[in-house]
Amino acid sequence: QNSPHYQGGARGGELSDTIFIKGGEGIGYDQKTGKTAIYSYAKTLLLANIEKILPPNKSILITFILPQGKRLATRTSNAAFGIVEGLSLLGTTGISQPLTVPEQLEQYKIQLQEKAKKFNSLVFCIGENGLELAAKMGISPHQMIKTANWLGPMLVCASLAEVKSILLFGYHGKLIKLAGGIFHTHHHIADGRLEILTAHCANLGLPTFDLQRVFNCSTAEDALQYLRELDAIKGENWVIRVYGEIAKTIDQRSQNYIYTHCEKNIKVGSVMFDRQRKIIIKSENADIILG
């Protein structure tokens, strides 16, 4: 702990009286709290292994370094959730899951088929944030399916498994792509978030100056914040109006996607949340499914 390289406080931390950790190059941190993005599973794993080999009356400082972490972080949605300047170290499971390879999709399909035998209604969560928030809302984990970016194939798989309704539960910067007909949401496949958002704003009559501001935002989160500021300043209701139409479009296009691929009619509802994991909007179908 007395090492000149030790950085205590928010960016550092301790596992015990003798084991200290900090995030070095390439490890991200929470922009809001300043805490290093090293999660509990990583710390538990570290403690279990280091305690066994640390000599008595000795202490150790461990610095995690990911040499390309800062560059690779730009390919993730970490920044949307406030994790900046690097990657998170081991999330909730401590098991690396290749979320964009066909083998992973097959695993998701198997999970879906098993759950479809027990439930007529399932909840699709793109990632861990959705799973966590859905559970806090009282949705049974037994009805949740993690889809990662494979929303199109998973919708079709659910229809073939005779599921009657699907609730799409996700971060707005991901789900908004479905409103533009993009059913694989990885950014390497397609983006269009700001274009889709701007189009819905224009259709509802948002003035040209504000449309240009929305279109030129860096992220969908920034655009959402701009609409919130407009509502606060002018006493208007752009967020609910715009996102209400986007959610409705997501539902319709998802239902059409299913029918196009397997000629089945399934009710699809959508719930979108923001970077702070606060619900922005629930579609009319989502309210019905939740009920």
Task: Provide an overview of this structure.
- The protein is α/β, with parallel strands linked by helices and 291 residues long.
- 42% of the residues lie in helices and 15% in strands.
- The strands form three sheets. Strands 7-6-8-9-10 form a five-stranded mixed sheet, with helices on both faces. Strands 1-2-4 form a three-stranded mixed sheet, covered by helices on one side.
- Helix 3 (102-116) runs parallel beside helix 5 (151-160).
- The chain starts with 11 loop residues before the first strand and ends with a helix.
- Residues 1-10 have low confidence and may be disordered.
Q: What is the share of helical residues?
A: 40-55%
Order of helices and strands: EEEHEHEHEHEHEHHHHHEEH
Percent of residues in beta strands = 5-15%
Please state the structural category. alpha/beta
Molecular shape: globular
Model regions low in confidence, pLDDT < 50 over at least 5 residues? 1-10
Mean pLDDT value: 87
SSE topology:
Layout: E1 12-14, E2 19-23, E3 29-30, H1 40-53, E4 60-64, H2 69-73, E5 83-84, H3 102-116, E6 121-125, H4 128-136, E7 144-146, H5 151-160, E8 165-171, H6 172-175, H7 193-203, H8 208-215, H9 220-234, H10 238-262, E9 267-273, E10 279-282, H11 284-290
Parallel strand pairs: 2-4, 6-7, 6-8, 8-9
Antiparallel strand pairs: 1-2, 3-5, 9-10
